């Protein structure tokens, strides 16, 4: 910062005078600063719209048009309600299943045929150190064991019984645990049914290796402590069949067998009308929200009397006054913007489109009770007839689904549903917004407005240098004046001194 001391000889307020002279010179620079601020506000407004339209398209619209939204099912069970439970999956079809449970699936298991340890055994210590505590000892050296064909290596000098059990649980399809009270090991298959052995089709767990058969006292050939795995026996719509698990999916319905015997259970599936209606209501709300955001910005009245504040003007105002002023100055910056108008047209035209849904009765939003409001509402959606929507879902759920999520084909673009069309065509508007103003939270981009801001900033830099030169020249001129006055005063003093001497 340049330090200047002026007016010593003349008493002239040089600084004040230069400041006033420079105020007039700074007007063009202030106007450039205001222009730069306006463009920055415009860029921010575009980016805010971009963010909200992107969220609507990529999150809310994407989730809404997902298969699960319109495949929601309700499942009811009549008849023998104790025998089964059921729930619909996304692929469930509307159907009735008659199920009779003849036998439940059972997991194979095996328990040590006798106690394997004595009192004082420590399952956390190495097998070798506990050798004397095993009923069948000694336990030394390395072992190789197999359970259902999976091999495990054991080092008695390093591995404890807990370590061995951990290896079994981690590497095989069997879960084992040691009961210190009974002093036995229990093994159970992780899956029910005939899923054991090296081929995965046996009814019993297979064990190989002396550590298992001799020390842990488990042997597939011994019936003691053994339960064979069994497949579930079930009759579905009159057809007797088996399943390895008590939980299986049939026609998109996940069935869980709970109790064998008794009468037939009837499982009925149909569209979950309540859930589908709520999803559609959420879509209408999300659509109206984004439509309002875009419309409000494109129709907002511009306040011509409020330009961006200069730095000097801000110094004279409080923070609250600055905020109030700038809110008015920002209004209407995107009024009648062509990009926003294009997005609005995309929203409105696709909402009113006819869809080749496979049904002549249900082929548009209007046909299922969803209408646009008054003309001045700019395309706002209303569910004017919920009864009509529910009836359409019950009568032809596939047509309703197609209205929203249908996919276009090369030979029939009319098959594209409302949600699919919006998702596809909104991308054009988002691309235009990004080209115009870039994306939020990006420090530098190649957008049109960012380039414009950069050019204005460069012009301001040039002008600031020019103003600094002008200001310096003013000070030089006043400094020269001070020098001249100082010389004149000196000469005057000498003259007076000479006259006084005479």
TrEMBL record:
The keyword Coiled coil applies. It comes from the Bacteria. Residues 10-107 form the Flagellar hook-associated protein 2 N-terminal domain. Keywords: Bacterial flagellum, Cell projection, Cilium, Coiled coil, Flagellum, Secreted. It is found in: Secreted; Bacterial flagellum. Residues 229-490 form the Flagellar hook-associated protein 2 C-terminal domain. Its main location: secreted. Pfam families: FliD_C, FliD_N. Required for morphogenesis and for the elongation of the flagellar filament by facilitating polymerization of the flagellin monomers at the tip of growing filament. Forms a capping structure, which prevents flagellin subunits (transported through the central channel of the flagellum) from leaking out without polymerization at the distal end. Homopentamer. Belongs to the FliD family. PANTHER family: FLAGELLAR CAP/ASSEMBLY PROTEIN FLID, FLAGELLAR HOOK-ASSOCIATED PROTEIN 2. This is Flagellar hook-associated protein 2. It comes from Paenibacillus radicis.
């Amino acid at each position: 910062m340049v330090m200047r001391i002026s007016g010593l000889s003349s008493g002239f307020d040089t600084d004040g005078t230069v400041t006033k002279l420079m105020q007039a010179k700074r007007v063009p620079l202030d106007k450039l600063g205001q222009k730069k601020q306006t463009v920055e506000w415009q860029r921010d407004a575009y980016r805010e719209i971009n963010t909200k339209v992107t969220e609507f398209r990529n999150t809310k619209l994407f989730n809404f048009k997902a298969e699960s939204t319109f495949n929601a099912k309700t499942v009811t069970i009549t008849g023998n309600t104790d025998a089964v439970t059921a729930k619909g999956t996304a692929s469930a079809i509307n159907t009735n299943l008659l199920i009779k449970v003849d036998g439940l699936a059972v997991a194979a298991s095996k328990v040590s045929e006798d106690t394997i340890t004595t009192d004082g055994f420590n399952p956390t210590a190495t097998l070798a150190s506990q050798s004397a505590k095993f009923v069948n000892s000694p336990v030394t050296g390395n072992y190789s064991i197999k359970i259902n064909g999976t091999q495990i290596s054991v080092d008695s000098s390093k591995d404890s019984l807990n370590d061995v059990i951990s290896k079994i649980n981690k590497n095989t399809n069997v879960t084992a645990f040691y009961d210190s009270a009974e002093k036995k090991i229990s093994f159970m298959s992780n899956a029910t049914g005939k899923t054991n052995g090296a081929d995965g089709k046996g009814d019993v767990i297979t064990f190989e290796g002396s550590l298992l058969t001799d020390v842990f006292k488990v042997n597939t050939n011994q019936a003691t402590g053994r339960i064979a795995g069994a497949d579930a026996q079930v009759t579905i719509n009159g057809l007797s069949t088996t399943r390895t698990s008590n939980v299986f999916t049939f026609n998109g319905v996940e069935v869980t067998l709970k109790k064998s015997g008794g009468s037939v259970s009837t499982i009925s599936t149909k569209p979950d009308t309540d859930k589908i209606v709520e999803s559609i209501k959420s879509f209408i709300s999300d659509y109206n929200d984004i439509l309002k955001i875009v419309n409000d910005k494109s129709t907002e009245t511009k306040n011509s009397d409020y330009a961006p504040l200069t730095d000097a003007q801000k110094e004279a105002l409080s923070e609250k006054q600055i905020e109030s002023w700038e809110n008015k100055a920002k209004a209407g910056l995107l009024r009648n913007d062509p990009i926003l108008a294009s997005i609005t047209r995309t929203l409105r035209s696709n909402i009113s489109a006819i869809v080749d849904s496979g049904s002549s009765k249900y082929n548009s939003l209007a046909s299922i009770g969803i209408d646009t409001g008054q003309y001045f509402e700019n395309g706002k959606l209303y569910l004017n007839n919920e009864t009509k929507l529910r009836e359409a879902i019950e009568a032809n759920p596939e047509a309703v689904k197609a209205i929203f999520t249908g996919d276009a084909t090369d030979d029939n673009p009319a098959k594209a549903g409302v949600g699919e069309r919006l998702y596809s065509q909104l991308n054009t508007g988002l691309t235009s917004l990004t080209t115009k103003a870039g994306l939020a939270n990006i420090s530098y981009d190649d957008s049109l407005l960012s380039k414009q801001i950069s050019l204005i900033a460069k012009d301001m830099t040039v002008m600031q240098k020019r103003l600094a030169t002008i200001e310096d020249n003013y000070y030089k001129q006043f400094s020269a004046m001070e020098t001249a006055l100082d010389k004149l005063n000196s000469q005057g003093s000498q003259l007076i001194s000479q006259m006084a001497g005479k």
